[in-house]
Each structure stands twice: as C-alpha cells, then as structure tokens.
Amino acid sequence: RLVIHYQKTFQRDSTNPEDIRKEPMVLLIGDSLSNFTSFNRIKSISEVRNIETGEEMLNHLKNRPYNIRAHYSIIKNYPKGKLTYREPIFADSFEYQESLKNYEWEIHEKEKKYLNYHLQKATTYYGGRQWTAWFTAQIPLREGPYKFGGLPGLIVEMYDSQRHYSFKLQQMETHNPYVNYIEI
User: Fold this and answer.
1) Ramachandran class of 32: left when φ > 0, alpha when ψ lies in -120 to 50, beta otherwise
2) What is the pLDDT of residue 181?
3) CA 60 remoteness from chain centre
C-alpha cells in the first residue's frame, strides 16, 4: 500500500485569475484499488469516528484548523475496469461509474528533474482541455491524480493548458494511518 500526497491548485472562477485555491490531496494505492481524495477529508473522517456526542461534533466542525474543498473520491477498481466517482451530499451521496479510460497519451522527448526523479512529458485531451503530465518510470505505477493514469510510470505533475487545475507530488509514504480509507 502506498500513499501519494499531491498539492491541488485550482482557479475556482475562470474569469477571476486572482481566485487561486489549494488543497492537499492523496492518492491511496492498494492491491487492486486506488482512491484519490482530499487529505483533509480523510483526516476529518478519521477524527469524526472518535466523536460520541452531538456537542463534540459541533466543536469539531467549528474548531478544525483546515477546510475541505474537495469532497469527492475517485476510486479506480482495476479488476473490474471501473472508475467510481463519489461525492457526499448531506446524509447521502452522488455516485456514478464509468469504464477506466485508456487515455491517448502523446509521449514527448522533453525531460526534467523533480525531487530526484527523472520526469518525462506527456500530453492528452480530456474534458475539453489539453493536459500535460510529467511522469517518472522510476516509479513503475500506471497511476496519477484525479482520473488520470496509464503512462509507463507515476504521474508526478499534471496541469491543464490554462493552468486552471494542477496537481504536484509532495511526498510518498508506505506507512500512513489513513491507508485504511482506500475505499471511502
């Protein structure tokens, strides 16, 4: 099991380039599943599991030192070839499934270094945007942030052509108390 921390940076309103937000995200990788979600969301769920009263819950919600902006989880189930997008809505959740995508990546010769990794550039189109990924074959996982994957190595950095959304690897861990939340 592996926990990969990314920094998600996004422009909330495309007409306001000053409105830039950040959120720590994690990619939890298990034997046959992966889950991409907000680190703060997992941290909050972990804390809530120890709360016993309504008063404690209110105190937790009022006093937690972090915000959760991304409430979704993207679960890739490789044996079934399915991707599940799940987002809580009040006491229920919105969920849909789709087939795991085989992105049409164009791998370029351009390279760079980041955190002692040799990265190679790749591009694809998804959701009406061109995306640039920097991946490393030094970590032979065909994984990446959000719904992305399928390159011959872990996606370390990813951004769309307008830089409205970007994801950048911060650190990796093999032992993390939140790894049990892979199916959240």
Assistant:
1) alpha
2) 56
3) 25
